[in-house]
Design goal:
Strand order of the largest sheet: 2-1-3-4-5
CATH architecture: 3-Layer(aba) Sandwich
Shape: globular
Order of helices and strands: EHEHEHEHEH
CATH superfamily: Response regulator
Strand content: 15-25%
CATH topology: Rossmann fold
Amino acid sequence: MKNHKTILLVDDDPDDVLLMTTAITGIDPLISILTFDNGSSLLRSLQQQDLAQVSMIILDMNMPIMNGVDTVAALRQHPDYVKTPAVMLSTSADHSFIEEAFSAGIDCYFTKPNSFDELVDIVRKMLTRFL
């Protein structure tokens, strides 16, 4: 498929994963979404599969085993993902966390919103900017 887009979604909260996938597919039902519950499972999967055609990676900041910052830092060491857009969504608005995330290599940071409509607005911004 010529314009096929794949998003990797890394978040340990099943409710957040459901809301995010619903928002993404509501905007563009042709986008494929692969989900992972932590950075370690994402990195293992990337070693085992050819996912070089990833369009964007969306990560949560706080996850067990491997958090979003460590995951982005590892991704930026991989030649296939060094330039793949990486967006972080987190409940934290702490400036030191945000600075750490940008230093690790994210392209954009959003604080998780309180409503689904706000989430759809954020997803629309991500898709417009990076896809």
